[in-house]
């Protein structure tokens, strides 16, 4: 592709290229991550539905497997298409970054592609075409192999991302990190905390999807009410349990953030000055990015931030102003006087992330997660003892609730990635000197026009793919169980679930 070839550029181009490259990666990543958690969570739940059918022989569980499995396949296909572009961007817009971290970053990405993705594809194919061709238990094993492979895929991707957040298992040789322990990379404590948190977020998304779609069908009082009631209640319980896990794992991540990325913690609270003990800000009124912190009014829980940081109510939490001084002493006050940095060469480094994004993103992550769990819990209560809510507000509530965990997941990732700026590889406070990189140094030698071209092209293609997914999802959701089951035979009363072909 034409923009892969290095071109000379004006020193004035660099900032624009950097911002455009960040926008492109952010748009495509957030878009792709709309598909990922639904695939992960729904694949496990579909495998569980099929397990229930194999064990009990109840036809409703077979219908559930086929209906939700159809939606899973549509979403998985779109996730694959959009995910492929992600890794190409490391060579397109971030080639300097790729050269710096390639010895480390390539290993978990290769494992994801060669191990997890190939297993996913193989067993998904066997699952799709294996109905009535494979023994029931072998076919079920294919469903579980695919589902577990999606989790393994997430593990390797998160291991790579966590290394950027907390580099371990490397030495610093010839101006770049060289991996000396793949085990250290894969067992990075940042990754081990991120993985259960991300998986819980995936189950939250899948649960809300079940509650929303099944709740709408249940409210319509059409056919297959047993399928919709069972699906809704499964989604409700899974959603509540997922939120509990999110809270526990989020607390673990907060404590690691206090140790590894103190600026991210301070920016999450818009904490300008060091406090001991430190209060947790529930909400702020005013410009959290303003130069005068006293102009911002906050509603706080006293000492709670200290507890979240270190499990006690007395720990000191450093504020943005004090951390700026520390960062300047460790990593410099100005960017290197390097022509590759364009207009940023020799300019002061801004060590403070975008405070409105980090402050409100952190609260949106928590808030949308809580709302999603609350809707699931309410749906469980409203459908107890075979009740069916009759008000028009019910389908609006559960269908609207589908969006809440998607928004929470997206807000969480935006906070995680933007909170580490201006670093693309964050320095490990107890790691090897030199293993860190500014985002401004990571971008490829491109012109603004070339990045604009790829940004517009990819955004347009992704928008078209989004419309396709929405169309297919709407089609099969509205079609219900009948859209994925074959027409009944004349002697359907005697037909066993084993004889029903998978309608794909």
From TrEMBL:
Q: Which UniProt keywords apply?
A: Cell membrane, Electron transport, Heme, Iron, Membrane, Metal-binding, Oxidoreductase, Transmembrane, Transmembrane helix, Transport
For this protein, the record's Pfam families field holds:
Cyt_bd_oxida_I
InterPro entries the UniProt entry points to:
Cyt-d_ubiquinol_oxidase_su_1
User: Where found in the cell?
Assistant: Cell membrane
Family the UniProt entry places it in: Belongs to the cytochrome ubiquinol oxidase subunit 1 family.
Main site of residence? membrane
- Which residues, if any, are the signal sequence? none
Q: Give GO terms for biological process.
A: aerobic electron transport chain
State which Enzyme Commission number(s) the record gives. Answer: 1.10.3.-
This protein's GO cellular component annotations are: cytochrome complex; plasma membrane
The name on file for this protein is Cytochrome d ubiquinol oxidase subunit I (EC)
The root-end lineage is: Bacteria, Bacillati, Actinomycetota, Actinomycetes, Pseudonocardiales
Topology of the protein relative to the lipid bilayer: Multi-pass membrane protein
Q: Which residues cross the membrane?
A: 20-46, 67-85, 105-129, 141-164, 199-219, 231-249, 360-382, 394-415, 451-472
What PANTHER family does its record include? Answer: CYTOCHROME BD UBIQUINOL OXIDASE SUBUNIT 1 (PTHR30365:SF15), CYTOCHROME D UBIQUINOL OXIDASE (PTHR30365)
The entry lists its GO molecular-function terms as:
electron transfer activity; heme binding; metal ion binding; oxidoreductase activity, acting on diphenols and related substances as donors, oxygen as acceptor
């Amino acid at each position: 592709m034409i923009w892969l070839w290095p071109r000379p550029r004006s020193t004035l181009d660099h900032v624009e290229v950097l911002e455009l490259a960040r926008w492109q990666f952010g748009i495509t990543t957030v878009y792709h991550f709309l598909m990922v958690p639904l695939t992960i969570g729904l694949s496990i739940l579909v495998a569980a539905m099929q397990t229930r059918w194999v064990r009990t022989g109840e036809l409703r569980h077979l219908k559930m497997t086929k209906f939700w499995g159809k939606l899973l396949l549509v979403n998985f296909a779109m996730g694959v298409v959009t995910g492929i572009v992600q890794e190409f961007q490391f060579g397109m817009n971030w080639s300097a970054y790729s050269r710096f971290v390639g010895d480390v970053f390539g290993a978990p990405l290769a494992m994801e592609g060669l191990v997890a993705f190939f297993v996913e594809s193989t067993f998904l194919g066997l699952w799709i075409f294996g109905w009535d061709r494979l023994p029931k238990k072998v076919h079920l094993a294919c469903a579980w192999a695919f589902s577990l492979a999606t989790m393994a895929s997430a593990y390797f991707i998160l291991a790579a991302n966590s290394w950027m957040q907390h580099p371990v298992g490397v030495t610093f040789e010839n101006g770049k990190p060289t991996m000396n322990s793949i085990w250290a990379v894969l067992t990075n404590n940042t990754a081990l905390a991120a993985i259960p948190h991300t998986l819980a977020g995936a189950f939250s998304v899948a649960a809300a999807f079940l509650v929303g779609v099944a709740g709408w069908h249940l409210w319509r009082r059409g056919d297959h009410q047993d399928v919709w009631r069972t699906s809704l209640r499964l989604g409700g319980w899974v959603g509540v349990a997922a939120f509990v896990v999110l809270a526990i794992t989020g607390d673990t991540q907060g404590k690691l953030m206090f140790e590894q990325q103190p600026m991210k913690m301070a920016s999450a609270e818009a904490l300008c000055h060091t406090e001991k003990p430190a209060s947790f800000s529930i909400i702020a009124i005013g410009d959290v990015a303003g130069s005068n912190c006293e102009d911002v009014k906050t509603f706080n829980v006293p000492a709670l931030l200290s507890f979240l940081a270190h499990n006690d109510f007395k720990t000191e939490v450093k504020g943005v102003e004090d951390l700026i001084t520390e960062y300047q002493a460790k990593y410099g006050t100005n960017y290197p006087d390097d022509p590759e940095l364009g207009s940023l060469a020799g300019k002061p480094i801004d060590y403070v992330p975008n405070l409105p994004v980090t402050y409100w993103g952190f609260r949106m992550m928590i808030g949308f997660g809580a709302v999603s769990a609350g809707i699931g819990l309410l749906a469980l209560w409203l459908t107890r003892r075979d009740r069916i809510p009759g008000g028009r507000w019910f389908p609006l509530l559960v269908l609207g609730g589908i969006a809440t965990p998607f928004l929470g997941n997206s807000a969480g990732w935006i906070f995680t990635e933007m909170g580490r700026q201006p670093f693309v590889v964050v320095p490990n406070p107890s790691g090897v000197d030199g293993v860190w990189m500014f985002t401004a140094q990571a971008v490829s030698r491109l012109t603004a026009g070339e990045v604009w071209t790829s940004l517009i092209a990819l955004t347009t293609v992704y928008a078209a793919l989004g419309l396709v997914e929405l169309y297919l999802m709407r089609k099969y959701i509205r079609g219900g169980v009948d859209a994925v089951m074959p027409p009944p035979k004349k002697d359907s009363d005697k037909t066993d679930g084993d004889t029903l072909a998978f309608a794909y």
